[in-house]
Description:
This protein is 46% helix and 19% strand. The protein is α/β, with parallel strands linked by helices. Strands 3-2-1-4-5 form a 5-stranded parallel β-sheet, sandwiched between helices. Bound molecules: adenosine-5'-diphosphate. The site of adenosine-5'-diphosphate (ADP) has 16 residues, from helix 1 and strand 4.
Amino acid sequence: MTIxxxxxxxxxxxxxxxxxxxxxxxxxxxxxxxxxxxxxxxxLFSVKERVNILTKATEDIANVEVCSFEGLSVDFARNxxxxxxxxxxxxxxxxxxxxxxxxxxxxxAPDVDTTFLYTSLQYSYLSSTTxxxxxxxxxxxxxxxxxxxxEEIKKKLEAGDKENRK
Length: 166
Ligand code: ADP
């Protein structure tokens, strides 16, 4: 049985991520999505919220699990018995960073390999950062994330605005 992990920030998960998740779930027996607890980033959603959102967004895919992790992706992979790390590639700009990270991970853990899935063309522009930026300025994000996430983002941004006005 081949277990793969898909680590990332997922703040929040977009249709681009979901496309990679669906395709990776076809390739591997089990796909464990790891939501990274990254103290250097200030995310819109907490780790727990991101895990809950991802769990709901992937509830129809039987061989997918969602959890959170801290630290190195290779340690996360080893801890759950995975031999493969899945990453998504969009533009050529992703490539440099992703290749460097994959090669570093290979040094750290030669028993774990990285596979890259190229984005489906219609999602090649899509990132969590863009989605949040468009939402902040009141733009329509329904083409970027599932409906229930549109609502979650709206609630979060409204709560943030209230907090800022205090
Ligand atoms: P990270 O902070 O680890 O880059 P992200 O949540 O932004 O976390 O992304 C997780 C993975 O998903 C990365 O490999 C990223 O390149 C990939 N990814 C993000 N958006 C897309 C997309 N629209 N299509 C394909 N892959 C994507």
